[in-house]
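Try this one yourself first.
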């Protein structure tokens, strides 16, 4: 199955996968308190592909609208989604969405967020991004490097 610019909805079994999908630039909703009925409603209303490890939920959905994941590892799950839909990770989309709330993130001047940046980062980084919805601040650091290395470790070109 190949899908152009897919939008995803992770059920309560796949919350960490949601963050990885957002990290590589895909629109992915996740609400761990959503019931199966709510997940089905949101997916239908917003044309989202459900990602789940729940056999019961997957059985309630048409095959083209859900992917039943086998792996318990979120990076392994990411690989399953990419393989299932023949997706390509676009380098330009990496770190363009907030990994916490799924909103787009945008560059911000350091002076606008200076009080939210740790002292060491203030001395070592000059470029920052922020989420206008939840306020989370992003910068390139060791965490980003580790995430990229983990993706490369499973053969994803990031």
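Now uncover the answer:
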């Amino acid at each position: 199955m190949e899908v152009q610019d897919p939008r995803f909805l992770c059920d309560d079994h796949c919350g960490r996968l949601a963050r990885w999908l957002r990290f590589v630039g895909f629109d992915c909703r996740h609400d761990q308190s959503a019931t199966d009925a709510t997940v089905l409603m949101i997916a239908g209303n917003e044309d989202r592909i459900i990602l789940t490890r729940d056999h019961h939920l997957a059985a309630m959905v048409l095959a083209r609208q859900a992917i039943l994941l086998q792996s318990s590892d979120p990076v392994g799950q990411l690989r399953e989604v990419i393989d299932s839909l023949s997706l390509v990770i676009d380098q330009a989309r990496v770190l363009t969405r907030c990994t916490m709330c799924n909103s787009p993130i945008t560059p911000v001047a350091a002076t606008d967020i200076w009080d939210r940046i740790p002292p060491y980062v203030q001395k070592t980084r000059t470029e920052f991004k922020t989420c206008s919805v939840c306020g989370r601040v992003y910068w390139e650091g060791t965490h980003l490097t580790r995430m990229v290395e983990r993706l490369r470790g499973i053969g994803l070109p990031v």
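Discussion: The radius of gyration is 17 Å. The longest strand covers residues 7-10.
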